[in-house]
Amino acid sequence: MIIQKVIKGISGISENEAIQIFQGGIVCNWWRKVNPLPRHEVPLRLTQRNLDWHQNHYTASDPSEGGEEFGRHTPFISTTAGTVERDTFTKTNIMHPAWEVALPFATESLKTDGYLFYCYLFIIGRPAVALEGFAEELRELNVYTSFSAFQPEGEITAKIVIPPAQIEYAEFWRAEDVMEAVDQGILPTPTKTIRNNLFISPDIYNNVRDLLR
């Protein structure tokens, strides 16, 4: 088992809402929609079909949900650890740092302010879709071999909830500040960082893998 550090971008929330996430965890859209969560339905939704739709058909109309957008009912939670994309034509590797992937999701492509939540997840190096406690490393081509246009996003997919103990801190990113930094040709930085006092560090273990920075 590997403890993988990841980032989750969330847009359009206040600082109070970010603090509430520290207390209750990052929950999937399905739970947000049907709260309280019908636990007996969890095994029926953690399926390979739904994982594929989460990665590749997130905004598509889902016939199993009355034609509503799949993402409104997903039991999965997208996070990123970053990834490396190989360009065979130029014989180069292209680094996609985790924060750089997550920031457009947190800010809706710099249209709004947002937060980056720094977390960790458990992965086991093979598909384990039905096991709620383990995340799926969709970025790993030796595990998920089917083509996906979204593979360069470096996704590690959590299930149902990322508990408070696994959320270390959150960075507040103001879209206006990011755009100003880009215009000046400098690396953007977060406006504010808030820490989670419920976080339990995994660093006492020797199998912690950092995200790409």
- The name of the CATH topology is Heat-Labile Enterotoxin, Chain A
Domain tally: 1
At CATH's second level, what is the architecture? Alpha-Beta Complex
Radius of gyration: 17 Å
Q: What descriptive keywords fit this protein?
A:
five-stranded mixed sheet; alpha+beta; globular; single chain; 213 residues; 27% strand; 6 helices; two-stranded antiparallel ribbon; 11 strands; Heat-Labile Enterotoxin, Chain A
Tell me about this structure:
It is a single chain. By secondary structure, this protein is an alpha+beta fold. The protein is 23% helix and 27% strand. It starts with a strand and ends with a strand. The relative contact order is 0.24.
Furnish the topology, listing elements before pairings:
Layout: E1 2-11, H1 15-24, E2 26-27, H2 29-34, H3 42-45, H4 48-56, E3 76-80, E4 83-87, E5 92-96, H5 98-107, E6 114-123, E7 155-159, E8 161-162, E9 167-173, H6 175-184, E10 192-195, E11 208-209
Parallel strand pairs: 1-11
Antiparallel strand pairs: 1-6, 2-8, 3-7, 4-5, 6-9, 9-10
Summary, kept brief:
With 213 residues, the chain is an alpha+beta fold. 23% of the residues lie in helices and 27% in strands. It contains 6 helices and 11 strands.
